[in-house]
Amino acid sequence: MAILDTGLHLAFTIILALSSATSVEDTECIQTQYFEIGTVGLIPCSCNASSLALIAWVNVNEGKTILLHPNGKKNGEGYESGEFDINSNGSLLINNVTASHESVFRVSTAISLMGSSSSKLICVHTTGM
Ligand SMILES: *[C@@H]1O[C@H](CO)[C@@H](O)[C@H](O)[C@H]1NC(C)=O
Ligand SMILES: *[C@@H]1O[C@H](CO)[C@@H](O)[C@H](O)[C@H]1NC(C)=O
Ligand SMILES: *[C@@H]1O[C@H](CO)[C@@H](O)[C@H](O)[C@H]1NC(C)=O
Q1: Which residue positions does the secretion signal occupy (predicted)?
Q2: What confidence tens digit (pLDDT) does each residue in 24-46 have?
């Protein structure tokens, strides 16, 4: 447990650093996804999840960290509630799309906890109903 807590603490520290470091430049969606309400939505990370120390998914509009993937573990409010999941490609799964998922999502990845990181924004639009 202590190790996990330390890892989580590190992860949160990095995410704070990531969000402040990228808040200025990262304002444009590199990709737009359309999901039908009531289906499973997959927001692509296009990253090699197994070789990354950390993947973090953030709902930018709500300012909330959804899911953390430090060293192959899954954490975060959105994962624990069953609303979201992450696949082996690092892509975010919305288990049941609702209109509330219309938002901007940010994925941040880091190869090592001390190393550099990168992030990108993806815009999600919901359709139907
Ligand atoms: C998705 O959410 C809707 C609205 O809450 C619900 O009616 C539906 O049963 C859910 N579908 C699944 C597969 O959980
Ligand atoms: C992903 O990373 C793992 C571990 O570093 C490596 O073995 C694998 O070949 C990589 N896969 C791709 C598609 O780059
Ligand atoms: C991961 O990405 C590869 C290559 O794009 C794709 O073939 C595969 O279906 C993806 N896996 C999942 C679980 O989405």
Answers
A1: 1-23
A2: 446 789 999 999 999 999 999 98
Q: Which of 66, 53, 56 is nearest to 100 (CA)?
A: 66
Q: pTM of this prediction?
A: 0.79
**CATH number where 6 lies:** 2.60.40.10
How far apart are the CA of 89 and the centre of ligand 3, in A? 6
Please give the residue range of the domain that contains residue 104.
2-127
Beta partners for residue 119, in sequence order: 108
Q: Which ligand sits closest to the CA of 72?
A: 2
CB 95 within 8 A of CB 83: yes
**Closest CA to ligand 2's atom 6:** 51
Amino acid symbol at 70: P
The count of structural domains within the chain is: 1
Q: Taking the CB of residue 102, how many other CB atoms lie within 10 A of it?
A: 16
5, amino acid identity: D
Q: Which of 8-12, 48-52, 55-59, 112-116 has the lowest mean pLDDT?
A: 8-12
C-alpha to C-alpha distance for 1 and 96, rounded to whole angstroms: 31
